[in-house]
UniProtKB/TrEMBL annotation:
Domain Arf-GAP: 9-126
SMART domains from the UniProt entry: ArfGap, PH
A single MF term (Gene Ontology): phosphatidylinositol bisphosphate binding
Organism of this sequence: Oryzias melastigma
PANTHER family per record: ARF-GAP WITH DUAL PH DOMAIN-CONTAINING PROTEIN 1 (PTHR46021:SF5), ARF-GAP WITH DUAL PH DOMAIN-CONTAINING PROTEIN 1-LIKE PROTEIN (PTHR46021)
InterPro entries: Arf-GAP_dual-PH_domain, ARFGAP/RecO, ArfGAP_dom, ArfGAP_dom_sf, PH-like_dom_sf, PH1_ADAP, PH_domain
Gene3D superfamilies per UniProt: Arf GTPase activating protein (1.10.220.150), Pleckstrin-homology domain (PH domain)/Phosphotyrosine-binding domain (PTB) (2.30.29.30)
Major localisation: cytoplasm
CDD domains: PH1_ADAP
GO cellular component, one term: cytoplasm
Protein name, per record: ArfGAP with dual PH domains 1
Length: 366
C-alpha cells in the first residue's frame, strides 16, 4: 500500500545517474529506460527487445517498474559490465549504433554476453585469423537468382575471391582489399543477413550482393573484411593511429536513391550512391556503374548547385542539381524538393572535405 518505503526507487535513481549509465550499454542510445537485471546493464528499449532473444542470459525490466532491493544490487552498471564483457574487442570489430540494422545489433549483444567473444581471444578466430573461406548465397547479375558460391578472403594476397564452380581453379572475381567496402543492406537484398560488397575493377565500381542463412556467419564475414582492411591500412599509412584508420574500414552509404541523369545527349534513370569514402566517392548510376562521377573537393574547383542550366532538355523531374567538375558539368534531377535538398547536402559534405594526397590518384580514372 501507500506505506511501503520508497527506498528502491531512490536507489534506482542513484544507479541511473551513476557514470556510464546515461547511454545504452549496447548501442549508445541516450537515456536508456530498460535494464538487464542479470547482466547489470542499462539499455534502450530497442536493445531490450534483443536481450529477450537470450532469456537464459538476460532478464530485462523497465526502470519504470517497481524494483526489489535484491534486483538493484545485481545491477552493477554499464562501466562494470564493459570492463568484463568488452575487455578485448579488436579495434577493427564493428560496434553497432542504434541506427544500424537489427542483425548487427543482435549479433553484437550475443557476441558480448552469450558467446563471451571479447573475454576469450580464441573465440575471435573466425574474423581475426587473416584467412576465411566459406559458401555464401550470391545474387546472379542477370536473373537476380541467388546461387551458392565459394568465397575466400586472404589477407596475405590482399583479396576477397569467389568461385563459380565448386572445383574451379580460377576465381570468377578477385576483389582487392584496398578498394573493398561492405555494408549491410537487408532491405535492398531482401534478406536480414544481406551484405552489399563494393569494389573497384578497371577503375569502375562493381557491386555484389550476398547473404548467409546464419546471422553470426554473415557478421563474421563482415568483421573479417574489416580486419583485412585494417591490416592493409596499417601498412599503407604506417604513421596513423587506430582512431584514424577505423572510420575508413567500411562505410555506410551517405545517401542512396534515385535521380534522373540528364544532359545534352541522354536521359537515363538509375540508382545513385555516394559512399562517404572519397576513394569511392563516386556517384554512380545504373546497377553496374556504367557511369560514374569522381567528386573532388572545392579547392580543386568542384561545386554543387541547385537547379539546371536553362538549356537542359529531356528530364521529367523538376528539382535539378548541377555538379561542376574541372572538366564538365553533370546534371541530375530529383523528384521532390526534399530529395534535392538531401542530395545537395550529401555532395556538399564531400566537397567541403579537403582531399588527401593519395586521393588525387583516384581522380584521373574518370
Amino acid at each position: 500500500g501507500s506505506m511501503e518505503p520508497k527506498g528502491s526507487k531512490l536507489l534506482l535513481q542513484e544507479l541511473l545517474t551513476a557514470a556510464g549509465n546515461d547511454a545504452c550499454a549496447d548501442c549508445g542510445n541516450p537515456e536508456p529506460d530498460w535494464a538487464s537485471l542479470t547482466l547489470g546493464v542499462f539499455i534502450c528499449q530497442a536493445c531490450s527487445l534483443l536481450h529477450r532473444s537470450i532469456p537464459h542470459i538476460s532478464r530485462v525490466k523497465s526502470v519504470q517498474d517497481e524494483w526489489e532491493d535484491s534486483e538493484l544490487m545485481a545491477a552493477g552498471g554499464n562501466n562494470a559490465a564493459k570492463a568484463k564483457y568488452e575487455q578485448k574487442v579488436p579495434a577493427f570489430y564493428y560496434r553497432p549504433k542504434h541506427t544500424d540494422c537489427k542483425l548487427l545489433r543482435e549479433q553484437w549483444i550475443r557476441a558480448k554476453y552469450e558467446r563471451n567473444e571479447f573475454e576469450f581471444i580464441e573465440k575471435q578466430e573466425p574474423y581475426s585469423a587473416g584467412y576465411r573461406e566459406g559458401f555464401l548465397w550470391k545474387r546472379g547479375r542477370d536473373n537476380g537468382q541467388f546461387l551458392s558460391r565459394k568465397f575466400v578472403l586472404t589477407e596475405r594476397e590482399g583479396a576477397l575471391k569467389y568461385y563459380n564452380k565448386q572445383d574451379a581453379r580460377e576465381p570468377k572475381a578477385v576483389m582487392k582489399v584496398e578498394t573493398l567496402n561492405a555494408t549491410f543492406q537487408p532491405a535492398k537484398i531482401g534478406n536480414p543477413c544481406g551484405l552489399q560488397i563494393t569494389y573497384l575493377k578497371d577503375n569502375s565500381t562493381r557491386n555484389i550482393f550476398v547473404y548467409h542463412s546464419d546471422a553470426k556467419e554473415m557478421v563474421d564475414w563482415f568483421n573479417a573484411i574489416r580486419a583485412a582492411r585494417f591490416h592493409y591500412l596499417q601498412v599503407a599509412f604506417p604513421g596513423a593511429g587506430d582512431e584514424e584508420l577505423v572510420p575508413k574500414l567500411t562505410r555506410n552509404f551517405m545517401k542512396e536513391g534515385f535521380m534522373e541523369k540528364t544532359g545534352p545527349k541522354v536521359c537515363e534513370g538509375g540508382q545513385v550512391c555516394t559512399p562517404s569514402a572519397r576513394r569511392l566517392c563516386r556517384l554512380y548510376f545504373d546497377a553496374y556503374a556504367r557511369g560514374e562521377v569522381f567528386i573532388g573537393s572545392k579547392e580543386n574547383s568542384y561545386t554543387v548547385l541547385a537547379g539546371l542550366p536553362p538549356s537542359t532538355q529531356g528530364h521529367h523531374w523538376n528539382h535539378g542539381i548541377t555538379i561542376v567538375t574541372p572538366d564538365r558539368k553533370f546534371l541530375f534531377a530529383c523528384e521532390t524538393e526534399a530529395e534535392q535538398r538531401d542530395w545537395i547536402s550529401a555532395f556538399q559534405r564531400v566537397i567541403n572535405r579537403p582531399m588527401r594526397p593519395q586521393e588525387y590518384a583516384g581522380e584521373r580514372d574518370t
